[in-house]
Amino acid sequence: MLSKMRKMDNKGFTLIELMIVIAIIGILAAIAIPNFIAYRNKSFCSAAESDAGGISAAVADYFSIPTHVNTPTVAQLSGWKGYNFTRAGLSNANHGGIVGGDPNDNITITVTDGSGRCPDDYMKASPYQWDSSGVRDGWDSANATYYKFISLQR
């Protein structure tokens, strides 16, 4: 019987080999898919932080002109020198704002995550706060808003 099977010259995989491969693929997928989703959600947070950085650069560019002495709004910066901070210009339907009074003081740039997919644990890991050196950029997890602080003192 054994010699008869050898003569048939069967090629291929056995059922157990295929089941082992499928089990390995299933285990890898069970580990990889949740991690992929977590990294993807964290990218929404990074997009809001990047939007705040873009607005910050536009504010610095705005104040580089000596005649600009009042704090601009996001609407004023949009379209100026090619900047686009309208709702279509920010990532993932994020909302941006600039808060500041005296141009010799501080400006606060806020960007709210419009996707609603930035994880709470990411936001709580880097909260904004006032400290001895002034302020620190960070997240307000209750409002899903990223705060970026700029000191304009000359």
From TrEMBL:
Identification of the protein by name: Prepilin-type N-terminal cleavage/methylation domain-containing protein
Transmembrane segments: 12-37
PANTHER family: GENERAL SECRETION PATHWAY PROTEIN G (PTHR30093), TYPE IV PILUS NON-CORE MINOR PILIN PILE (PTHR30093:SF47)
UniProt KW Transmembrane helix keyword: yes
NCBIfam families documented for this protein: IV_pilin_GFxxxE (TIGR02532)
Presence of keyword Chaperone: no
Source organism (scientific name): Desulfosarcina ovata subsp. sediminis
Pfam families associated with the record: N_methyl (PF07963)
Keywords: Membrane, Transmembrane, Transmembrane helix
